[in-house]
């Protein structure tokens, strides 16, 4: 306005009657704003006319409005293209005047935009970026980073720049800080209030709670108030929770938050208190142990083991208290109304052990605990009882032991864990005095070899102050062997025998009895049993009893028993009775001696025959088998005993004959005999002509026919071709006074029941003139006689021949036949 006014003052209206003004003349428009440029005419009597023109070769992009004396260029929204120099030409009546207006444009957004500060990490360098868009003209704008300490970074744009960007590197800290990005426009004409614009961000890093601290007193008296405070740092600011001895492990969000107050503290409030601070990044906690002080409590006195204690057992008295602060505990014993202090310690516990409780240690025990705030007692009753000691002695009742055996007695104590056992015995033999064992069982084992060991045995048991005993009587016996029977006197039938039964090493004598049994029948005792004491040390005896009997044959083989009985209780039944048996034998000479053949009938030669020779003889003596043969008496066999079996596996003819069995013993002899007959058909026949088969007429010949055969064969002499037969038993034929007609072949036939055999021979007779006529008839007679008289025949024949031809003639004799 001032220049316009100046113009009005120095140029008269007549020359230039109207005035033209543009406003603003030098416009500085911000991009985007709505702006106007006015051209005003004053003092024009006419209707003013306006026209606008741009000096720079660019369209104006503007709306023109003319209202009366004013023309307005309206920029709806300023753009950079609007920058120009404008000429407003105003006409009034024919006159026109021009005014020039300069439009300058700048661009400067509302605020710089900061990025990169959203996700900061504590301690880790981060780049923050600050950006301004659409700046114009670039060379007139500048960016700077600053904080409370001043400018950190600056950056000035260039002409072409439309966007300015400036980075700064920061190190985020837990404290946080404000950082500012400021944009400056240095172009002249930009209003001061618009030449600078800034954005500030707070660099804040969230972190988990730290430095959690619990403060308050950790010692509090019962009934007082407990106050605890918790503090913590963290971003975001942590929340605080509490946990205490009474919160059952749960975290409590207290109303008070940072402070926990417990009124009227009790012991239950003692313990660990925890404060936990947490935010979304985590939690942290701290704790404080709070002690509640007061008089002792929970004072107890307990026994271990709990049950009534047996004498000698160990028992522990445990006296305990809970005392804060720790004070003193005492253990006292109330014995018959008088309290005695047993132990007193600084602390809260006493263990007092009675290693072997005595009966008089029973009674009331008291545990006293005290500290600065008060005292408390507790008591308990200790009962010590004696063991119910019981003793058992085995075996029960009277014990019977055999001398020589080992006596075993067992003492068993019960009702006592460690009894002491000892033994009392009638004799110290084998038992040591004062011998005792610890333990529930004691075994007394001793070799019984002395009757002095008989008597009462006692087992003494002790358990603490209690004693008990048991006894048993031990009876001894000895009956080790069976009786022995011995016989004396005559054993011969009709004589008197004495049987003596002796049993040795018996004890006790009065309990023994001896019986004699003949078969089943008891014999009267003939003499009272005698006893003989065995010399010391055994002190046993030998018991003897005897019976006498007249020997009869009827006694033979009968059993005679000597039975010894021990009549004593407790002796095992198998050892109560022992007996000896003898079978009576009655002596006699051999009897019933027999000799038999088998088979019995006459035997054929070669068959087997057995001879059985037997006798009955007590005592057994000797038997002999004899054969009476032609060669004499021959002993076939002789044995000690009463029997001979003799077998002829193939009987021979010469084994025929009389056989004799002869039995003998010291009392006599007996014989029996039998005839053995062996038969055979004629064989080994021989015919002998004596003196020769060639004789002179008138001479005599003897024909000797021999065979081996039984029974003896009939020998028949036949002149062949003639048929005259002469039979003979003896087999000897005498032909006298032979004539030539007697010459010829002769046949001898041997025949018995079993068969026959034939021999042929020839006789030749040499003629002699002086030959007496022979009489065959005369010769034949004896043979016919002989046919009936068997054994006699030969003799008779001999006799006949001798009688008829007595004198110088000697009848040739045949050698004896073997048959
Ligand atoms: C600023 O930092 C951003 C992100 O780190 C990056 O993209 C940009 O190029 C940086 N600008 C300058 C001028 O260094
Ligand atoms: C950051 O700026 C805010 C607002 O002006 C202020 O309240 C705060 O204290 C500042 N912080 C620091 C760390 O200077
Ligand atoms: C504390 O306990 C006593 C006894 O039980 C009671 O009388 C008193 O009121 C209690 N005080 C508070 C603050 O609870
Ligand atoms: C007492 O006995 C208990 C249980 O046997 C044991 O735990 C404790 O340590 C003992 N105390 C002392 C002081 O001997
Ligand atoms: C126990 O405390 C009572 C009072 O509470 C007191 O009379 C007594 O003397 C105390 N006993 C001992 C042994 O301190
Ligand atoms: C002793 O303590 C036990 C348990 O600790 C309790 O039951 C009893 O009542 C107490 N006796 C006395 C006489 O205090
Ligand atoms: C007790 O007697 C048994 C058998 O009689 C014997 O073995 C043991 O040695 C004895 N002990 C003592 C201590 O005398
Ligand atoms: C003899 O023979 C008889 C009967 O064959 C027989 O019983 C007996 O034992 C025999 N004796 C001898 C001593 O061989
Ligand atoms: C031989 O014994 C038999 C039977 O035993 C008897 O018949 C016979 O008479 C006895 N002979 C002699 C000679 O003893
Ligand atoms: C009987 O004859 C045979 C041969 O023929 C002979 O071995 C045996 O010894 C004879 N016997 C006698 C008793 O002469
Ligand atoms: C047989 O011979 C005997 C003696 O040589 C003679 O005496 C007898 O007459 C004869 N008999 C016949 C029938 O030939
Ligand atoms: C023959 O025997 C007869 C009668 O016995 C006798 O008389 C005669 O003298 C005997 N002859 C001779 C030669 O011996």
Keywords:
mainly beta; Immunoglobulin-like; 7 domains; 6-stranded mixed β-sheet; 56% strand; elongated; transmembrane helix; Vascular cell adhesion protein 1b; signal; transmembrane
Mean pLDDT reading: 85
Structural class: mainly beta
Model regions low in confidence, pLDDT < 50 over at least 5 residues: 1-15, 775-812
Give me the CATH architecture of the largest domain, please: Sandwich
Please state roughly what percent of the residues sit in beta strands, choosing from under 5%, 5-15%, 15-25%, 25-35%, 35-45% or over 45%: over 45%
Termini separation comes to: 218 Å
**How many beta-strand runs?**
62
How large is the radius of gyration? 86 Å
Classify the helix fraction into a percent range. Answer: under 10%
The number of distinct helices, counting runs of at least 4 residues, comes to 3
Ligand inventory: 2-acetamido-2-deoxy-beta-D-glucopyranose
Protein name: Vascular cell adhesion protein 1b
Subcellular location: Membrane
Transmembrane segments: 779-801
InterPro entries: CD80_C2-set (IPR013162), Cell_adhesion_signaling (IPR051275), Ig-like_dom (IPR007110), Ig-like_dom_sf (IPR036179), Ig-like_fold (IPR013783), Ig_sub (IPR003599), Ig_sub2 (IPR003598)
Describe this protein's structure.
The model is unreliable at 1-15 and 775-812 (pLDDT under 50). The chain has 7 domains: 18-106, Immunoglobulins (Immunoglobulin-like, Sandwich); 113-202, Immunoglobulin-like; 295-385, Immunoglobulin-like (Sandwich), CATH 2.60.40.10; 390-477, Immunoglobulin-like; 484-568, Immunoglobulin-like (Sandwich); 588-676, Immunoglobulins (Immunoglobulin-like), CATH 2.60.40.10; 681-818, Immunoglobulins (Immunoglobulin-like, Sandwich), CATH 2.60.40. The protein is mainly beta. It contains 3 helices and 62 strands. Helix 2 (776-786) packs antiparallel against helix 3 (792-804). The strands form 16 sheets. Strands 17, 19, 21, 22, 24 and 27 form a 6-stranded mixed beta sheet that branches. Strands 32-38-37-34-35 form a 5-stranded mixed beta sheet, with no helix packed on it. One 2-acetamido-2-deoxy-beta-D-glucopyranose binds next to strand 29.
């Amino acid at each position: 306005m001032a220049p316009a006014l100046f113009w009005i003052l120095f140029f008269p209206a007549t020359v230039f009657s109207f005035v033209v003004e543009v406003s603003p003349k030098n416009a500085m428009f911000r991009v985007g704003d709505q702006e106007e440029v006015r051209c005003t005419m004053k003092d024009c009597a006419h209707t003013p006319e306006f026209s606008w023109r741009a000096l720079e070769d660019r369209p104006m992009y503007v709306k023109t409005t003319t209202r009366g004396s004013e023309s307005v260029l309206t920029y709806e929204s300023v753009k950079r293209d609007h920058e120009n120099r404008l000429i407003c030409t105003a006409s009034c009546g024919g006159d026109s005047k021009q005014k020039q207006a300069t439009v300058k444009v700048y661009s400067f957004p509302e605020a710089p935009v900061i990025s990169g500060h959203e996700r900061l990490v504590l301690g880790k360098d981060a780049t923050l970026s600050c950006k301004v868009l659409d700046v114009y003209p670039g060379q007139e704008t500048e960016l700077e980073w600053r904080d409370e300490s001043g400018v950190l970074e600056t950056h000035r744009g260039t002409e072409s720049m439309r966007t300015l960007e400036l980075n700064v590197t920061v190190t985020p800290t837990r404290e946080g800080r404000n950082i500012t990005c400021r944009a400056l426009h240095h172009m002249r004409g930009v209003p001061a209030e618009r030449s600078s614009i800034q954005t500030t961000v707070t660099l804040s890093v969230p972190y988990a709670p730290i430095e959690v601290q619990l403060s308050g007193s950790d010692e509090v008296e019962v009934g007082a108030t407990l106050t605890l405070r918790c503090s913590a740092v963290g971003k975001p600011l942590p929340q605080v929770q509490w946990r205490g001895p009474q919160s059952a492990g749960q975290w409590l969000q207290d109303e008070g938050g940072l402070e926990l107050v417990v009124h009227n503290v009790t012991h239950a409030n003692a313990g660990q208190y925890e404060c936990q601070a947490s935010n979304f990044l985590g939690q942290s906690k701290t704790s404080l142990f709070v002690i509640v002080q007061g008089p002792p409590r929970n004072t107890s006195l307990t026994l271990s083991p709990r049950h009534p204690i047996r004498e000698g057992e160990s028992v522990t008295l445990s006296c305990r208290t809970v005392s804060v602060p720790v004070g003193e505990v005492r253990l006292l014993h109330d014995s018959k109304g008088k309290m005695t202090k047993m132990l007193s310690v600084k602390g809260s516990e006493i263990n007092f052990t009675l290693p072997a409780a005595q009966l008089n240690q029973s009674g009331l025990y008291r545990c006293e605990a005290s500290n600065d705030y008060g005292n408390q007692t507790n008591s308990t009753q200790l009962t010590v009882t004696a063991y119910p000691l019981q003793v058992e002695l085995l075996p029960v009742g009277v014990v019977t032991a055999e001398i020589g055996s080992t006596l075993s007695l067992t003492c068993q104590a019960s009702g006592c864990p460690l009894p002491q056992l000892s033994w009392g015995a009638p004799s110290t033999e084998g038992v040591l005095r004062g011998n005792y064992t610890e333990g529930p069982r004691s075994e007394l084992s001793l070799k019984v070899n002395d009757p002095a060991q008989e008597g009462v045995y006692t087992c003494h048991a002790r358990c603490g102050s209690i004693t008990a005993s048991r006894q048993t009587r031990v009876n001894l016996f000895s009956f080790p062997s069976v009786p022995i029977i011995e016989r004396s006197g005559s054993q011969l039938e009709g004589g008197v025998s004495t049987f003596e039964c002796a049993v040795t090493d018996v004890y006790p004598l009065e309990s023994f009895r001896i019986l004699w049994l003949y078969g089943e029948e008891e014999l009267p005792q003939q003499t009272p049993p005698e006893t003989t004491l065995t010399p010391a040390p055994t002190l046993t005896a030998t018991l003897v009893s005897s019976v006498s009997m007249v020997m009869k044959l009827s006694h033979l083989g009968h059993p005679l028993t000597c039975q010894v009985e021990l009549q004593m209780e407790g002796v095992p039944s198998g050892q109560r009775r022992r007996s000896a048996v003898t079978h009576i034998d009655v002596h006699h000479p051999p009897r019933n001696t027999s000799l038999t053949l088998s088979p019995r009938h006459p035997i054929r030669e070669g068959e087997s025959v057995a001879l059985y020779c037997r006798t009955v003889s007590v005592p057994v003596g000797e038997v002999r088998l004899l054969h009476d043969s032609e060669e004499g008496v021959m002993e076939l066999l002789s044995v000690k005993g009463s029997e001979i079996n003799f077998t002829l596996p193939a009987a021979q003819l010469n084994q025929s004959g009389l056989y004799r069995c002869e039995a003998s013993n010291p009392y006599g002899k007996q014989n029996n005999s039998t005839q053995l007959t062996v038969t055979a058909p004629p064989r080994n026949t021989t015919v002998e002509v004596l003196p020769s088969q060639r004789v002179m007429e008138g001479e005599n010949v003897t024909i000797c026919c021999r065979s081996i055969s039984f029974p003896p064969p009939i020998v028949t002499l036949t002149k062949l071709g003639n048929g005259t037969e002469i039979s003979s038993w003896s087999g000897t034929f005498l032909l006298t006074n032979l004539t030539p007609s007697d010459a010829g072949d002769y046949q001898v036939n041997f025949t018995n029941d079993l068969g026959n055999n034939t021999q042929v021979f020839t006789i030749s007779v040499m003629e002699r003139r002086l030959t007496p006529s022979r009489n065959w008839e005369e010769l034949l007679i004896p043979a016919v006689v002989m046919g009936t008289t068997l054994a006699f025949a030969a003799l008779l024949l001999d006799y006949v021949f001798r009688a008829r031809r007595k004198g110088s003639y000697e009848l040739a004799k045949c050698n004896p036949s073997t048959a």
